[in-house]
């Protein structure tokens, strides 16, 4: 036969329950603090994600901007294109895997054209191969190369031999599955761009 606990025993039981609940709450708060700290972006992280201004006054047709600028820790390939480059890129080329930039994730809408850029004479790409992330090398001149005797100018990834034209469009049959990424960007003036911002502010 069970007996009703005395009032003194009842009070002791409530005290124990209250103490346990309090200890659990403190434990949860203690455990949560590091996560809050972890998820709060540091000033350094915010700066790394910020848009990047690039002075392109020194860019010449047929050249790549040096030193290589960076955006979000990734190299930016900014190339000047000659009138002959622009004309060649506008011609049909059935050696390319995605000549019309049908993969919409690889460029903003305003770069969905033969040059994959706002201005035909300037190309802006992330310098990261879409295969496994190596940085391709720039070979702007149409001239025979060891890796392609019929080279028409563009980017070559030495890691596994992927090739891209001067609009960053990948050649069929290489390991890289996609065109180079064109980051969002705008012109602040004829000689300055901002990468990471889509709106026209010029
Ligand atoms: Fe460029 Fe493999 S990482 S071809």
What does this structure look like?
The longest helix is centred in the first third of the chain and has 33 residues, at 7-39. The N and C termini lie far apart (88 Å). This protein has helices at 7-39, 43-49, 83-90, and strands at residues 52-55, 70-71, 74-80, 122-126, 137-139, 154-157, 162-165, 185-189, 192-195. Mean pLDDT is 85; it is low at 13-32. The strands form three sheets. Strands 1-9-8 form a three-stranded antiparallel sheet, with no helix packed on it. The relative contact order is 0.15. The chain is globular, with a radius of gyration of 28 Å. It has three helices and nine strands; from the N terminus they run H-H-E-E-E-H-E-E-E-E-E-E. It has 202 residues and is α+β, with helices and mostly antiparallel strands. Helices cover 24% and strands 19% of the residues. The chain folds into two domains: 1-40; 43-202, Rieske Iron-sulfur Protein. The structure holds FE2/S2 (inorganic) cluster. FE2/S2 (inorganic) cluster is lined by residues 129, 131-134, 157, 159-162, 175-176.
CATH architecture of the largest domain: 3-layer Sandwich
Q: What's the shape? A: globular
- CATH fold group of the largest domain: Rieske Iron-sulfur Protein
Query: In angstroms, what separates the terminal alpha carbons?
Result: 88 Å
Q: Summarize model confidence as the mean pLDDT.
A: 85
Proportion of helical residues: 10-25%
Going by CATH, what is the homologous superfamily of the largest domain? Rieske [2Fe-2S] iron-sulphur domain
Biggest sheet: strand arrangement? 1-9-8
Q: Which molecules other than protein and nucleic acid are bound?
A: FE2/S2 (inorganic) cluster
How many strands, which pairing sense, and closed or not: the largest β-sheet? 3 strands, antiparallel
Q: Determine the structural class based on helices, strands and strand pairing.
A: alpha+beta
Number of helices: 3
Q: In the residues, how many domains can be counted?
A: 2
